[in-house]
Write a structure and sequence with these properties.
8-stranded mixed barrel, single chain, binds calcium ion, 9 strands, EAL domain-containing protein, 46% helix, binds ligand C2E, alpha/beta
């Protein structure tokens, strides 16, 4: 690829080489990561705003690479999507999250809904509904305690996507739209898709109190959810002032650093234990 003859072609600068080789390392690592148990799942509480109780948790994958250290899902999930490795990885997360939620219930903690991120590649694989059904059956978790977070890219008006969503709804699973409002899609999908909830993206929540346009968007999304009979949850809530605003506007739930960062499962048990004590 690199040729320094008389034409002096030099496609890769040293910086580019570094990016490419990190990418290759990550891709090779992803393939081995599952067998080598390098992935874990952290959980972030979702809080009912009026009562302040934890009613759900979002499962967020973590990867401890043997050489490169902790790698953010923002870096490796897109790579897993490109390479198709998101399918085995996503299935692992789904099963692990269901298993963990059942284990909390078996330990006598108040029942939670567990929200699992589903990438569009995973959703579009054939037999996705069966994968979900198997994860529930094999872990013994009741379907009403599972929520799937879908993005607007999945919802691109396809008859196929609609039929899978109906299949999942028929099983009793809760469906939500993640990063709502960032996907450039038309709002008409809201009447076509059998969804239960909207998640207000953190890019809108962040400057809610500084930027009147963000405030208008958040307010409008909350009202729209109410009018459509959907649950609405705000993500990226970091301050008491933001929470106060959301309470005033009757947003149902909130998630963010104000309550807790994503934490290992043992910490969730402690949090819930404190709640019932
Ligand atoms: P997301 O689904 O939008 O998840 C929310 C992200 O925001 C998480 O980052 C979370 O740690 C972070 N966050 C939560 N509260 C706050 C807050 O108050 N302030 C700020 N600044 N950030 C907050 P994380 O865990 O790094 O995940 C990044 C993205 O990677 C996720 O965005 C999701 O798109 C993807 N992802 C994570 N786990 C999975 C997974 O198991 N499967 C799939 N397909 N995607 C995943
Ligand atoms: Ca999410
Ligand atoms: Ca999100
Ligand atoms: Ca996001």
């Amino acid at each position: 690829v690199k040729e320094q003859g008389k034409n002096n072609f030099q496609f890769y600068t040293p910086e580019m080489n570094e990016v490419v080789s990190r990418r290759m390392n990550l891709e090779i690592g992803l393939r081995k990561g599952i067998q080598k148990n390098e992935f874990t799942v952290h959980y972030q509480p979702q809080v009912d705003i009026p009562t302040g109780t934890v009613v759900g948790v979002e499962a967020l994958i973590r990867w401890q690479h043997p050489k490169l250290g902790l790698i953010s899902p923002a870096e490796f999930i897109p790579l897993a999507e490109e390479t198709g490795l998101i399918i085995p990885i996503g299935e692992w997360v789904l099963r692990e999250a269901c298993r963990q939620n059942k284990a909390w219930q078996d330990a006598g903690l108040p029942p939670l809904r567990i929200a699992v991120n589903i990438s569009s590649r995973q959703f579009q694989q054939s037999g996705f509904a069966e994968v979900v059904s198997r994860a529930l059956k094999e872990t013994g978790l009741e379907s009403k305690y599972l929520e799937l977070e879908l993005t607007e890219s999945i919802v691109q008006n396809s008859a196929h996507a609609i039929s899978i969503m109906h299949e999942l709804k028929g099983m009793g699973i809760f469906l939500s739209i993640d990063d709502f409002g960032t996907g450039y899609s038309s709002l008409s999908y809201l009447k076509l898709f059998p969804i239960d909830s909207l998640k207000i993206d953190q890019s809108f929540t962040r400057n809610l109190l500084q930027d009147s346009k963000d405030e208008a968007l958040v307010h409008t999304i909350i009202n729209m959810a109410h009018n459509l009979g959907l649950k609405v949850i705000a993500e990226g809530v970091e301050t008491g002032e933001q929470l106060q605003y959301l309470l005033l506007r009757h947003c149902h739930e909130a998630q963010g650093y104000f309550f807790s960062k994503p934490v290992p499962p043992a910490r969730i048990s402690e949090l819930l234990g404190e709640q019932i004590a």
